[in-house]
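sorry for the late reply, my laptop died twice this morning and i had to redo everyting from scratch. anyway the thing you sent over, i finally got around to it. pasting the sequence first so we're on the same page, its 160 residues, then the predicted structure underneath. double check i copied it right bc i was rushing
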Amino acid sequence: MKCSSSRFGTFEITEGQVLTFPSGLLGFPDHRRYVILDHDTEAPFQWLQSLDEGGLAFVILDPDLFLGEEYRIEVSDETLAEIHGKRGEPLSVAVILTIPSDDPRRITANLRGPLVMNPRTRLGKQVILSEEYPTRHPLFPLPAPAVAEPAKAVASQTCS
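ok and here's the structure:
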């Protein structure tokens, strides 16, 4: 299958690489077919490229790579039904990243809206979690800004 995107140009994929999100993604309900492409660097990021709109792509990351056991989500029966999954079946989870163009070090992950994907059925769903999960979780903690130390009094000497 020949595909094209504004970011990757023309590329070939197999039908087995197509991931379908029956409900679309938040804000993009009509864009349902995607493919995951590797980033062109050694970074662990990947691209979720829309096959319905060549200009639509999201940078994604497996949250286990930066949060490990701290981030575990409960997959509802409704979500399992939509992705034709079964309890106990291995699923893939990814979070969408935001990379500010003016300062890429301030990259954040949307932990409230992860993508849950079933590798067996190639179906996925973006789930919305409770507000305890931030939509802009910093991926790399930035050092605190330097605080100027208060001026120290210097003993003055008087010459006579």
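Helices lie at 77-82.
thats about all i looked at so far, will dig more tmrw
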